[in-house]
Amino acid sequence: MGNIAIIPARGGSKRIPKKNIKLFYGKPLIAYSIESAKKSQLFEKIVVSTDDDAIANIALEYGATIIQRPKELADDFTPTQDVIQHALEVIDEPFDYLCTIYATAPFLDSKYLQKGFEKLQNSDAVIAFSATSMPFPIQRTFAIKNGRCEMFFPEYFFSRSQDLEEAYQDAGQFYWRDLKKAAPKITFSSQSIPIILPRYLVQDIDTLEDWEMAEVMYEVLKKRKFIS
Fold first, then answer.
1. Distance between CA 64 and CA 47 in Å, rounded?
2. Per residue in 161-203, pLDDT tens?
3. Where are the domains of the chain?
4. Residue of 105, 135, 131, 132 lying closest to 214 (CA atoms)
């Protein structure tokens, strides 16, 4: 039955207007996700779910199929899973594996899509997703309350960093799921396989500052041939 990639990409981004199609290093941001999915050669169908005509036109230009997302699934609070489920219902075709790919992942490397699929296929897990190691020990983090510090884990204040257990976080690039099995309620669980990416391939793009940092990183990595 094969595999399907679904890329959620709504219009109406507030902090970065038209973020999904804003030019990033010369190409619309969403183009990177579509091209990585195509390059992986893993998918029978690559779908973009969107409520925005401009996004739809660009996605079509780069070779994706379009699902028109209804307005009730295009606000700031709609869970991604609801968008994915809607797309699967509209397509109404059988697939073995689903890969949700975010439209804001210019550092996505097709080899990690391939690695995630291979690991999921050869396991009893339900999900394989992109992750990366934290750059600092979370045991020594603190909140700021009334202008003062309050440690989340004060018992670790005197611990050496090298003695603390390493922590990992969601890289926000892709999420493979075996559609033949029931989906877990929580993505990060014993039913999931983390695919660890190097930290230099992970960058949130939520603000203009994030965007500028990501473009600088991308240019450097491109010139040094860390990315193709």
1. 5
2. 999 999 999 999 999 999 999 989 899 999 999 999 999 999 9
3. 3-133+168-223
4. 105
Question: What confidence tier does 145 reach under pLDDT thresholds 50, 70, 90?
Answer: very high
Structure tokens at 103: 């439209």
Give the CATH superfamily of 3-133+168-223: Spore Coat Polysaccharide Biosynthesis Protein SpsA; Chain A (3.90.550.10)
Structure tokens at 130: 């992109």
Does position 1 have pLDDT exceeding 90, yes or no?
Answer: no
Chain center to CA of 76:
17
- Over 90: is that where the pLDDT of 146 sits? yes
For residue 21, give every residue at least 6 positions away whose Cβ sits within 8 Å of its Cβ, in sequence order, or none: 28, 29, 30, 54, 55, 58
12, 20 Cβ separation under 8 angstroms: no
In sign, the C-alpha dihedral spanning 204, 113, 5, 27 is positive
Average pLDDT of the residues in 195-218: 96
